[in-house]
Design a protein that fits this description.
Length: 308
């Protein structure tokens, strides 16, 4: 399940490879350096996993396109570190995931909409920080079926988790051990969608064990993150979650308010307006499967949507 730092654990190895090439034109040598930006320079930071680095590059290049001076501090670390650096102004902009950020700030909150998630975050957020507009792009838990299962049961990307109700008894599902006992797991799948699977296989949190089991058809359904690059590579099908069992994990810029001009705010909100889950999955695949430089991928996408 996604939680503060979960994606960092899952993709740390990939991020280590990417850190050397991403934003290479103006990286700080030490991402943990505690110096604030000079003058009107905006410092764009990222957590230590591949997708965060990519989104940070998108944010930075969108700002540059509006004439904003930008430096990068990629691959910093976990939310515990980046939140502190934002509060003291060492970084100005950070890609965040609204559900994970809320869990960090208020673990007991259970909002029912994206707007309520933002409101709950803002109620707990440090006064020097602000959330900008959320993208529709989400990197969250899902029920994903492999290509063979999708073909057998006529499931498409428009299909819902609810469409498994009559066939779940014939399917094995794989996920982290905790998935078996959590509301955002088998408990909720039964309570909310009426699903009872043939069997459950304890694997990992959307990592290589789960990916391999789904590919090999050891399990026919699995909990994968919605922007997992193997979804494209293996032609898996992510099922829609109309009841929002898995909550919200929208990509959303978190900023140090006094360090960003209104023009910068407008530029980042324009990115959020264009970035959806399908686009983010494609961009992640280019970086993680095709081994493209995330900075090049970011620039090409911004150009394709008219933001460069």
């Amino acid at each position: 399940m996604r939680h503060p730092g979960a994606a960092a654990l899952a993709l740390a190895a990939t991020a280590a490879l990417l850190a050397g090439c991403s934003s290479s034109d103006d990286n700080s040598d030490d991402p943990l350096a505690n110096d604030k930006a000079s003058g009107d320079t905006v410092v764009v930071g990222s957590n230590n996993f591949a997708e965060s680095i990519l989104i940070a590059d998108i944010y930075g290049e969108a700002l540059k396109a509006k004439g904003v001076k930008v430096t990068y501090k990629p691959n910093i670390g976990s939310r515990e570190t980046t939140y502190g650096l934002l509060k003291n102004g060492s970084i100005t902009v950070l890609p965040e995931y609204n559900g994970a950020l809320l869990a960090y700030l208020d673990a007991k909150a259970t909002p029912k909409t994206v707007a309520a998630t933002t409101a709950a975050i803002e109620a707990k957020l440090d006064s020097k920080l602000a959330l900008l507009e959320p993208a529709s792009a989400q990197d969250k838990d899902s029920v994903t079926v492999n290509a063979a299962t999708a073909k057998k049961y006529n499931l498409t990307s428009e299909s819902s988790i609810a469409d498994l109700k009559s066939i779940a008894k014939d399917l094995s599902i794989g996920a982290s051990p905790e998935f078996q006992t959590r509301q955002q797991g088998l408990v909720g799948l039964k309570d909310v969608y009426g699903l009872e699977f043939k069997s459950f296989k304890a694997l990992d949190a959307g990592g290589p064990l789960t990916q391999a089991a789904l590919k090999k058809n050891t399990v026919q359904a699995a909990d994968l993150f919605t922007t997992d690059a193997t979804i494209v590579k293996e032609k898996h099908v992510v099922l829609q979650d109309p009841e929002n069992l898995f909550g919200f994990e929208n990509v959303q810029p978190l900023v140090y308010k006094s360090g960003l001009s209104q023009e910068g705010v407008t530029a980042l909100n324009a990115v959020s307006a264009k970035l959806d889950t399908k686009a983010l999955l494609d961009l992640d695949s280019q970086v993680q499967i095709d081994n493209k430089d995330p900075l090049d991928v970011a620039k090409a996408w911004l150009k394709s949507v008219g933001l460069s």
